[in-house]
User: Which sequence fits this backbone?
């Protein structure tokens, strides 16, 4: 699986951690058949840092149809580009090529999120592509499960079994920062806005962020703990809990 969460952080198919902080529309998965793109925008809570605002799925494997799943405040879920799943819970037959469900069912990283309302989209699509998208007010968390595609690349990595070549710099060097205009699945482009990494979170501020992360996600450690600390330091304690839902 590939996970995308927070401001935004990516855990690639090969298990590398990469962070993409700027505002853009970028390739999440790019292959000849499967196109998955992300729109990353600053939110009212992230102090200029981007979060995943919406995800678009299309390409030949969907017969050129396009599914867009945005954050709750961004707009409705759409299919070509008609609103779908307008009630909760609900389901949608994607022209006989996919099944899309919208409910509160889904795996959580831990049980700490059990008291939060869950709005989760489950998309089962051709070629064993499955997505689980947790919709929050101003951002989404995404889990993509799929089999490796020939020539695959994007922010979820190149799926070649090598962690070392899935750094953010390596991925951007291979696929670029922005999706070309003639390949964009979204109906319009947002302004590209680069962001410099924020100052390190240190001292009492870091200790408070770490305590919030460990309170909401007991047992969190390593790269996931560092990602949670980053989010809480730069966007507030709501992210300690919201990052726990994948």
Assistant:
């Amino acid at each position: 699986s590939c996970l995308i969460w927070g401001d935004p952080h990516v855990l690639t198919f090969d298990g590398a951690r990469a962070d993409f902080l700027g505002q853009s529309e970028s390739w999440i998965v790019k292959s000849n058949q499967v196109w998955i793109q992300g729109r990353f925008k600053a939110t009212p809570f992230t102090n200029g840092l981007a979060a995943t605002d919406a995800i678009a799925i299309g390409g030949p494997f969907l017969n050129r149809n396009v599914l867009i799943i945005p954050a709750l405040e961004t707009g409705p879920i759409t299919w070509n580009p008609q609103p779908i799943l307008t009630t909760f819970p609900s389901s949608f037959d994607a022209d006989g090529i996919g099944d899309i469900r919208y409910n509160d069912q889904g795996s959580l990283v831990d049980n700490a999120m059990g008291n939060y309302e869950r709005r989760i989209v489950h998309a089962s699509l051709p070629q064993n592509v499955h997505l689980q998208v947790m919709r929050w007010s101003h951002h989404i968390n995404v889990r993509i499960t799929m089999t490796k595609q020939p020539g695959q690349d994007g922010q979820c990595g190149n799926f070649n079994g090598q962690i070392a070549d899935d750094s953010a710099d390596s991925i951007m060097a291979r696929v670029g920062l922005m999706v070309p205009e003639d390949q964009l699945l979204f109906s319009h482009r947002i302004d590209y806005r680069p962001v410099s990494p924020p100052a390190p979170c240190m001292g009492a501020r870091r200790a408070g962020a770490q305590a919030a992360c460990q309170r909401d996600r007991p047992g969190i450690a390593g790269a996931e703990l560092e990602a949670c600390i980053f989010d809480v330091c730069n966007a507030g304690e709501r992210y300690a809990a919201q990052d726990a839902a994948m």
